[in-house]
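note to self: dont lose this again. the chain is below, predicted strucutre after it. 232 aa total, dont forget to put it in the shared folder this time
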Amino acid sequence: ETLTLLWSFIVSVYCVGGMIGCLCSGFLTAKYGKKKCLLCNNLLMIVAASIMGCSKIARSFEMIVVGRFMCGISAGLCAPLHHQYVGEISPRKLRGFANSTASFFWTLGKVVGQISGQRELLGSQSLWPMLMASCGLPALVQLVTLPFFPESPPYLLIHKGDQESCKKAIRQLWGEGHHQADIDDIMKEKATMKNTKILSVLELLKEPAFRWQLYTIVILTATVQLCGINAV
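---
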């Protein structure tokens, strides 16, 4: 019973970390920018993977608990960050496609994890620490490649007010050309945000104007678990 309780806690603590990460993502991106947050998030995931990978050598299940919690925080931060950054650095005609890749790679990650976790591969008694540490590999790849990408143009213009850096980032991402229409769209978004109050989670739940949108999102998110995507 104690062993079952410990493993149940190890599994569920990931979701607790994910909730904390999601709640912090909005504040952190507004303050530090999406690129910088993603870089720091990769470091967090690499540290978490290292802690879990060394748990067997240290003979400490507590390290697995800590590592899973940190992985949850990292995943919670990454989920909204990824969509926002990829969407904002993509040209308008590719924006929908770029955002849809997130769902594909989330599912692909689950499949790779399920296959790698088989006893014939990394799920054996001797190799399971490598399996738990493998989540650090994608984070390491992004940590190495992301510095070559610019900060999100909307963040530079809306939050930093730096129009020159915004234009430079757009040219680096989309090439030389006439991008004034895109800059104008960002300026319109900035003007709209000035006149829009940012609601907290509690205020959002209490706001009658968003009640049906909230119901729709909750129902879709809950029922997606019943569509068979995890089995696939």
